[in-house]
Amino acid sequence: MTRKNEYDIFRACLAYSLKIIMNNHNIKKFFGFYLNKDIYAVSITEICEINRIANLYKEKSFDTAIIGMINYHGKTTPVYNLKKILNMNDLNQDTLTMWFAFKHLSGGVSCFAFDSLYKMLQVSSDRVDNVLEHNAMNNHKQYVQNYIRTNEKLIPVLKLENWVQETK
Fold it and tell me: How many domains does the chain contain in total?
């Protein structure tokens, strides 16, 4: 299966998930993605769009986390490097291939770049753990809301609204 086919299937799953998410309160859905070799997740209800990085244009900015600007539905919108926001050691921008649009509680939108898709995660509520139990593992705990327990690992669920509030 080619990358384009994977991407198209992923977008179709995202659209379907957004339609049915309100009907099942015991199942939580998350968008999983890679940053470096680590897996992170964001609640699917906070995502407006997922797309490939293309046609970023550079604009002088004092914010070093901005990798470029896009025209998002007629509005010039910065694309932020999640690696920089999370203070990761490897800040290689060459690996950033996609971005997602995150909707703020205030109604605005921010775009965040990541390395690649992991998968859509559907987990029962009892597989989502409280932050306090696992915070010692994480050096960017102020942006971690929960952890998803899978058979293989714990996946941090980012709460990007915290970052949005800090930058206002």
Answer: 1
Class of residue 146 by CB neighbours under 10 A (exposed 0-12, middle 13-18, buried 19+):
buried
Beta-bridge partner residues of 33: 40, 117
Phi-psi region of 147 (alpha: psi -120 to 50; beta: other; left: phi over 0): beta
- Tell me the CATH number at 111: 2.40.50.180
Q: Fill in the DSSP letter of residue 126.
A: G
Q: Is the pTM of this model over 0.90?
A: no
DSSP E strand stretches across 3-162: 27-35, 38-43, 47-52, 66-72, 75-81, 98-103, 109-114, 116-124, 128-130, 144-149, 154-158
Q: Which domain holds residue 38?
A: 3-167
pLDDT tens by residue, 96-119: 889 999 988 888 898 999 999 998
Contact present, 82 and 90 (Cβ < 8 Å): no
Buried b (16+ CB within 10 A) or exposed e, 58-97: eeeeeeebbbbbbebeeeebbbbbbbbbbebeeeeeeebe
Cβ 128 vs Cβ 25: under 8 Å: no
- State how far Cα 34 lies from the chain centre: 9
First to last CA, the chain: 42
